Amino acid sequence: MSELRKASLHITGIVQGVGFRPFVYSLAARYHLNGWVRNTSAGVDIEVDGIEETLDEFITDLRTELPPLSRVDTFDIIFSAPGRFTEFEIINSKAVAGAFQPISPDVCICPDCLHELLDPGNRRYHYPFINCTNCGPRFTIITDIPYDRPNTTMARFKMCPDCTAEYRNPYDRRFHAQPVACPVCGPKVWLEVAGRQRAEGEDAIRQAKQLLADGKIIAIKGLGGFHLACDATNPRAVDELRRRKLRVDKPFALMMPDLAIVKQNCVVTSLEYGLLESRQRPIVLLERKLDCAIVEGIAPGQHRLGVMLPYTPLHYLLFSADGSPFTALVMTSGNLSEEPIATENDEARERLSGLADAFLMHDRDIHIRCDDSVVQQFENKIYYLRRSRGYAPDSVQLPFEVPPVLATGPELKNTFCLTRGRYAFPSQHIGDMENYETLRSFEEGIQHFERLFRIQPEAIGYDLHPNYLSTRYAMDRAKHENLPAFGVQHHHAHIAACMADNGLNGDHAIIGVAFDGTGYGDDGAIWGGEILVADYAAYQRAFHLAYFPLPGGDAAIKRPARTALALLWTLGLEWEDLLPPCRALGDEERISLRTQIESGLNTVQTSSLGRLFDATAALVGIRQLVNYEAQAAIEFESVLDESESRGYHFEIQNGIMDPKQVITSLLIDIHSGVSVPILSARFHNGVAEMVREACGQVKQETGLNEIVLSGGVWQNMALLKRTVHGLRKDGFTVLVHNQVPTNDGGLSLGQAMITANRFNGGVK
C-alpha cells in the first residue's frame, strides 16, 4: 500500500470570488481527503493528505475541472510528510504583506440564477440582485483583497438566516458568494420621480417599464454606473434623449431582450452570437438589416448597431413580459456629453436631473465606475473598441518580468496601466481627459488599482504631449514622489502595445504601422500616418504620410472642410467653388482660411492618416462638420462599395507617402460623376496598397517580415481586411490587437512596456 503524504499547493490567477474554495472542498470530498483550503492575498493555498495515487487524481482534476469564472496562472506543488488532518475544511483567509492577485471582472447573471429569478416558487423570484459564485458583481464592488464580504460594498448588508445557511454550505453554489442576498436582507430598488420616491421593489420596476413605454427617459443604476434608457423604437424619445444629452449624431448603445430579437433586426455571425451570449456581455457592433425596427436616429449615417443582451437581473426584469416586451431599449452611459458615468445616487440626482424623467435607483454602492465594453469581430476573433465591464481588470500576461510601473495613457479614450512581475493591468475605460470630473475618476482608478494589486510604482510613463491632463498628472506625481518619469512617443506606444498584446518578447525589431488621428511627434508636429521599425527600446521612422497643415488645430479636426482645403493648398490644387468643402465654408471664411494657412498662424503640421480620411470624406461630400471623433471617416467607410477593386495610388519614396496623386485622381472622379461608394472603395483600396508597398520597401532594406498594426484607424474594418490580406499575400506575418483596443484605449499598455524597458536600462 502506498505511503500517506501531504501535498501543499499554491495557486495563483483568478481564483477568488469564483467558487474556487467550494470546488476544492467538493473535490476533496470526492476523494475522501483531509486537509484545508484558504484564500490569501497571494492566491489560494491548499494542504491535503493522501496516498500517491489518490493525490495524483485529485491534482489532475484540480487542474482540469476548474470553476467557469476561474483562471489559473501558476500551480505550485510541494510534497512532504503528512499533516495528520482529521477532516477537510475551509479555513479563514490570510493577508500576506505585499502579495497580490488578479481580480475577476463583473459577469452577467448565470442560467441557474436566471431560472430562479423567473420562478414564482423561488424565494428570490423577481429579486433584482440575485447572484451566486458563478455570476454577478466583482470588480465594481470590491474595496480590497482578499475578496471577502467585509472588503466589498455588500459589507453593510447583514445576511439573513437563510442566506447565511447558503453562504456557509460548501455544497451550495452560494457558498462564500460575497454579494449573496435576498429580498429580506439585501439591497433594495426604488423609483424616484421629481425628487420623490414613487414605488419600491417590483412595483418600481413595473412603473419604470410603463414610463419607458410612454416615451420617457429613465436613469437606471446598473453594475458600474447609471444608464439613460428609452424605447429604441420611439423616434421622439430617441430625439429627446439626444437633445438632453447633447449628443448630436454619436450612436447610442442598444439592449435587446434575447437573440431572437437581435436576429430579427441585425445580421449576426456565429462568433457574434457567442460574444453577445458570453458572460462578459459586451456591446457588439452588428450590421443592421434593411427592415430593422430600430429608429434611424440610433446610429445616424451608419450601417451598424451596437447591441448587447441583458446582463443583470434588473435588466431581465425590465424586459420580462407584463404585456408586450420592448424590442430594444437605448442603454447609453448616464452622463452629459464628455463627463464620466454617474455612479452614486446623490451624484445622479444632481448631474442627471435635467436628462432623465425618472430614476430607477438601488442602494448597493458602486465602488469603482465601469462603462460597458464595445467589441466587434475580426477573423473570427474578438476585436476590442472599448475594454471595460466584463473584461477589466483582467490582466495581460507579459512575455517577461517587468518592474512596478504606472503608465498614465493618452488624452482620448484614456486608460492607465500598472505592471508587476509578468502581469500588466490595463484599467477599465476612463474616457476623454478633458475635464476635472474625468481627471478625478482617473486618479481614483489609479489609487484603487494600486491598492488592489499591491503595486507601488517605481517609474512612470506618459505621453509626450505637454498639455494632456494624464501627462501633467504623471509629471506632478513623479516630482512629488521623486520617481523617474519617461516620456513615450505616442505611436511607438501603439506599436509596443500590439507587441505586448501578442506576447512578443522584443528580442528583435518589427515593422509597426501606426495609423490614427492625433499623436504628438518628436518634431512637434501631429503624427498619425507612421511606419516604424521598432522594439520596446527604440524606434525609427521608416515612412510617414506627407505633412499638411491643420489650421486651428482642434478646430480643423471638428471641421473636416477646413482640413480638406488645407490639404488642397499644400498639394497645389485649386479650391473649386463646386467642391463641397468650398460650398460649406463660403467666400469670407475661405479667404480667412487661406490667409491663416499661408501665414502659419495657429496652424500645426500633421502626417495623420485619420485627418486624411476626414479631408477625403469632406471632398466627396460625406461630412463638413463632425460632432464626435472620426465621424467623417466612419460614415465614409459605411458607404463603401465592396465590388470595386481599383485603388488610388500614393507616391512612396524617400520616406514619404505622398497623397497628391490620390487626391488628384479623386477630384477627376468627382468631376466625372463617379458615385461616392466607388470613391470610398478606391480610397480604401489605395491606402491598403500604400501600406503593402511601403512595408515591402522596409523589408527589402531590413529583412524584417513581421508587422503589427495599431492605432485608431485600424478600427476601420474595410481598411483592416484589405491591408491584412495584401500583406499576407506578400508573405508577411501580420499581428493585430486581441487583448486591448487598437485605438488609444490600448496605448497605456505600450507606454508601460517602453517605460519598463527604459527604466531597466537606466535610460531616462
What attributes does this structure have?
764 residues; alpha/beta; Alpha-Beta Plaits; Nucleotidyltransferase, domain 5; twelve-stranded mixed beta sheet; seven-stranded mixed beta sheet
Textual characterization of the structure:
- With 764 residues, the protein is α/β, with parallel strands linked by helices.
- It has four domains: 4-90, Alpha-Beta Plaits; 189-362, DHBP synthase (Alpha-Beta Complex), CATH 3.90.870; 395-498 and 744-761, Nucleotidyltransferase, domain 5; 514-735, ATPase, nucleotide binding domain (Nucleotidyltransferase, domain 5, 2-Layer Sandwich), CATH 3.30.420.40.
- 34% of the residues lie in helices and 23% in strands.
- The protein is built from 22 helices and 30 strands.
- The strands form five sheets. Strands 6, 7, 8, 9, 10, 11, 12, 13, 14, 15, 16 and 17 form a twelve-stranded mixed β-sheet that branches. The chain has a seven-stranded mixed β-sheet with strand order 27-28-24-23-22-29-30, with helices on both faces.
- Helix 21 links the parallel strand 29 and strand 30 (733-735).
- It is globular and about 90 Å long.
- The mean pLDDT is 95.
Topology, please?
Elements: E1 4-14, H1 20-30, E2 34-40, E3 43-51, H2 52-64, E4 71-80, E5 88-90, H3 111-117, H4 161-168, E6 189-193, E7 196-200, H5 201-213, E8 218-221, E9 226-231, H6 235-245, E10 253-255, H7 259-265, E11 266-267, H8 270-277, E12 283-288, E13 304-308, H9 313-319, E14 329-333, H10 345-352, E15 358-362, E16 374-378, E17 381-386, E18 396-407, E19 417-426, H11 436-452, E20 459-463, H12 469-481, E21 485-488, H13 490-501, E22 510-520, E23 526-534, E24 539-545, E25 548-551, H14 554-558, H15 560-571, H16 580-599, E26 603-606, H17 609-619, H18 631-638, E27 651-653, E28 656-658, H19 660-671, H20 676-702, E29 706-710, H21 717-729, E30 733-735, H22 747-761
Parallel strand pairs: 2-5, 8-15, 10-13, 12-16, 18-20, 20-21, 22-29, 24-28, 29-30
Antiparallel strand pairs: 1-3, 1-4, 2-3, 6-7, 6-15, 8-9, 9-14, 10-14, 11-12, 12-13, 16-17, 18-19, 22-23, 23-24, 25-26, 27-28
